[in-house]
Here is the input.
Amino acid sequence: MLLDFFPSRTLTIYLAKMFAVRIVAVLAMLVLVLLALDMLGKTGDILAVPGNGDAEVWLYASLRAPQLVARFLPYSVLLATIITLAGLNQNSEVISMKAAGLSAHQILAPLLLIGLVVAAISFAFNERIVTRATATLKVWEDVEYAAIPQDREARSNVYFNDGNDVLMGATLSGRGAETTLTDVMFYERDDGGMITRQISAERATFASPGWRMEDASAFNVASAQTQQLGSVVVAPGVEIAQIELRRVDPDAQGLAELSESIEALQGAGRRTGELEAKWWHKISGPLSAVLMPLLGAVAGFGLARSGQLFARAVIGMALGFAYFVVDNAALAMGSFGGYPPLLAAWAPFFLFMLVGETVLVRTEE
Here is the structure.
């Protein structure tokens, strides 16, 4: 009985293949155009670094392309829906299918099935490829397109507070007890926030507690004198847990890794609403590919000869783009604490599913 929801096998394959081809074509067009425009602004910065050449330009393209694919795949499904259904309507194929006894939901069933397949592929693609490309690209951008650090989780320009004092480093690399800071500056400040002494070193490692600065030199503000300290331990209040918490980047982490980061932050008493919303959105985001055929379905129904086909296509596009606007706004509200994380990630999806279903039913009536 479940298979009765779909039209005949031949018609299901025909509609599914037509829809899939258009998704791929629209996505390829969008990614190629947007990647070319993006590289126009970035190629100069990449080639300005001594030693960089064509290989680095292509490396940037390979890291940026997965991000564009992940971002514009739902838009591609929406545009492919409108193109497919408008074409079927224009050629009276929708009328033929309805005359054969098919409902609007049965006509859309193959498109919804392809949307579900696209959502599954999108989720796996985001988890396995996009997160890694994002992590590598951010590290590369932090070093201004110079040589990519071997530690892809390295961070640039980090700082930590130890009471009134501040520990700063140009780069942060390594994990656990092997964590290393380079180009380190430690500022001792009085109760008024004024710097009393500045200690600098090329390198600092975790000393449990504190951070051991090697070949350090100190500048005393009051006497304006510099003193060689050798090896010195500073910032005993800056723990490894505090270092690890600064690494959390939801766009560069998969579901499992982000779950561990959220638990660590909650254990440290940190606010995790924004990260929890991003966690849920890693699931609801790819599922928007299932929603797009429903929102764009208005373009496929109604008489083409009435002259309203273009207006219906515009309405379908407006509904689809309105979903993305509301989705981004809900995530922003979740980040500020205005919405609970679960509501921020899922409310737009279910809201527009009801809107799309309502429009489809009213159109069919």
Remarks:
- The chain has nine helices and six strands.
- The chain has two domains: 2-145+275-364, 155-238.
- Residues 2-145+275-364 form one domain.
- The mean pLDDT is 84.
